[in-house]
């Protein structure tokens, strides 16, 4: 049942190229220039009237929402607010009929996310669900559904569901941009072409895991660790950190790199591992200066970046891992993969139950 893999989590990490392809299938027209979402009830007129977007979810699905929100803002220029469902549902969020609420849930059964959906509908908003389980409560109650085609996810730690949610967000953001005319046909075709290359790029990451495995065995000996990044790298840092603590039980925190000196820098001491995500070129220089700050306090820094920056970064960091190059907005679909592997191998090195971490359930149906 694990298809020759030692754990469901590893199997599911390896299923990602297939999940990306399946989630894109039939949603891009044959010319490769347009997004087609034929099942959507949202009319073009309605799409043009949306004046703000709320993205609501829990845990890893929330982290996918952070990436999705940033991509919508960038491609469609609509204000987006992301929140965790357990907060959103109780704080009377400002929802109007022109708010589009997107709920994200692998299982489609998370109690807080379902309650957030109901709160949004009660306030007249159109609710779009991105979910992996057809026929789930959230899929049934939402006004629209974009299914992720990740296939059943068994491991408690979510991997292929997260990346499939990213693909769904890319498709939907492009669709919004297409209808509202905020991106040219050329630009949309350009992003689609880059999306088509993602599955093979993930395969290339999965074909070379030795360095990540060795690094995981190194961090498995530590009790505290930090992830830093800016922009989309920060969103992925949050996910990498959650994955690691969830299954390795190593205390880890993710920080927006520029926030460090507002408090957290006090925790950086000799040999503390810091994982610096440095894939977003527009803020690379800024991230490098934050790397230097932690290095100066003795941190042991690993950078995740693109091949072209490795030589330069190695002047400031202890180790660097390269991921294949794609468009900045698509990078999370690649950069998260080594972090999933890192969590997996760190958990393994610590002798934990990888697929069933302590205290956690796969589906959180109570609040
Ligand atoms: O089924 P959902 O996507 O609604 O679940 C949300 C979270 O409980 C889930 O993503 C959780 O954070 C994962 N265990 C993380 O790996």
TrEMBL record:
MF annotations from Gene Ontology: transaminase activity
Primary location class: cytoplasm
EC number(s) given by UniProt: 2.6.1.16
Catalytic activity: D-fructose 6-phosphate + L-glutamine = D-glucosamine 6-phosphate + L-glutamate
Keywords recorded for this protein, A-Z: Aminotransferase, Cytoplasm, Glutamine amidotransferase, Repeat, Transferase
Biological role: Catalyzes the first step in hexosamine metabolism, converting fructose-6P into glucosamine-6P using glutamine as a nitrogen source.
Protein name: Glutamine--fructose-6-phosphate aminotransferase [isomerizing]
Taxonomic classification: Bacteria, Bacillati, Bacillota, Bacilli, Bacillales
């Amino acid at each position: 049942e694990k298809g020759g893999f030692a754990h469901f989590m590893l199997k599911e990490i390896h299923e990602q190229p297939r999940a990306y392809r399946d989630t894109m299938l039939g949603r891009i027209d044959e010319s490769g220039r347009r997004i087609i979402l034929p099942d959507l009830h949202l009319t073009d007129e309605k799409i043009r009237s949306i004046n703000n977007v709320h993205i609501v979810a829990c845990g890893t699905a929330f982290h996918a929402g952070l990436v999705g929100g940033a991509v919508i803002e960038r491609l469609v220029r609509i204000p987006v607010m992301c929140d965790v469902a357990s907060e959103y549902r109780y704080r009377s969020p400002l929802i109007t009929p022109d708010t589009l609420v997107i709920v994200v849930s692998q299982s489609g059964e998370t109690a807080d996310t379902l309650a957030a959906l109901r709160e949004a509908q009660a306030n007249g908003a159109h609710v779009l669900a991105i979910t992996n389980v057809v026929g789930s409560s959230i899929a049934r109650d939402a006004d629209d559904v974009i299914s992720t085609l990740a296939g059943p996810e068994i491991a408690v730690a979510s991997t292929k569901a997260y990346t499939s949610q990213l693909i769904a967000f890319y498709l939907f953001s492009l669709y919004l941009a297409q209808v509202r005319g905020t991106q040219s046909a050329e630009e949309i075709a350009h992003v689609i072409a880059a999306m088509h290359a993602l599955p093979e790029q993930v395969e290339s990451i999965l074909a070379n895991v030795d360095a990540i495995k060795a690094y995981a065995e190194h961090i498995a000996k530590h009790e505290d660790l930090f992830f830093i990044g800016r922009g989309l790298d920060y969103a992925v840092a949050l996910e990498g950190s959650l994955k690691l603590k969830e299954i390795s039980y190593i205390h880890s925190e993710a920080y927006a790199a520029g926030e460090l000196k507002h408090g957290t820098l006090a925790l950086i001491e000799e040999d503390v591992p810091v994982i610096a995500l440095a894939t977003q070129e527009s803020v690379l220089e800024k991230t490098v200066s934050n790397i230097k700050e932690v290095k100066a306090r003795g941190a042991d820094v690993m950078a995740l970046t693109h091949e072209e920056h490795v030589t330069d970064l190695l002047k400031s960091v202890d180790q660097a891992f390269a991921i294949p190059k794609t468009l900045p907005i698509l990078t999370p679909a690649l950069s998260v993969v080594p972090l999933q592997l890192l969590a997996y191998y760190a958990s393994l090195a610590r002798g934990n139950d990888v697929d069933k971490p302590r205290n956690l359930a796969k589906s959180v149906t109570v609040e």
